[in-house]
Amino acid sequence: MTPEALFSLNGKTALVTGGATGIGRMAAEALVRAGARVLIASRKREACEAVAAELNALGAPGQAEGFGGDVSSEAGIDALVEEVKSRTQTLDILMNNAGVSWGAPMGQFPYDAWDKVMSVNVAGIFHLTQKLLPLLMQSASDDDPARVVNVGSVMGEVPMGDGAYSYSASKAAVLHLTKIMAKELASYRVTVNALAPGPFVSRMTAFATADEKTREKVGDAVPLGRVGREEDIAGCMLFLCGQGGSYVTGAVIPVSGGINVQSGGNIFAAAL
Length: 272
Hints:
The chain is an alpha/beta fold.
């Protein structure tokens, strides 16, 4: 099989939540460039429509459609599912990327910051996938399963709070939920995998990545010496969603520049 065939998504239909900015935007472009029809949804309808227009102007083999969608409530999820159903009868790829965060120091972290973050980041992923499962099953086969890609975080893999306690806990839940769903949906020929990104330039991390000097400081703290780039997300998505990833489920890909394997120093070094 040629490299092109391994990663081509010609004829596939994908939904990317939170696809107007950050990692979702990076993924949406990669899918369009690989030939997929990409539905981009977030709470900001105008932003999704604008991104879809940008992607359609690339001259890539795929195409994009942008519209509003909210995964923060059951009603919002139901409305999003109905919108998707009005546009397609099958779904090959679901990227659960929409998420929120909240930061505050220990001692000041509010109770409400848990309900809001867990509702979107965990319950939203589960219920949207559950509601879209019939569409995913319509496109699934033994040779070419439907794909679900959940976006977690390296903060869900290692004990990093950084004031984002509910966010970190929610992303740990996403990674565990990914494995549970992978086990249960395999019989339906639906793979479920997750990305666990480190720092990328996005609206959520703008406080630390929007400025080049600050971004370099963040990158200096990453073992591989930089923040993430668009191609890092694109490569993961094309692998997980293309034919080359059809035999992979329940995996967590650490797109974090090595943060996932950081540990304390050699405690015996001083004695040697």
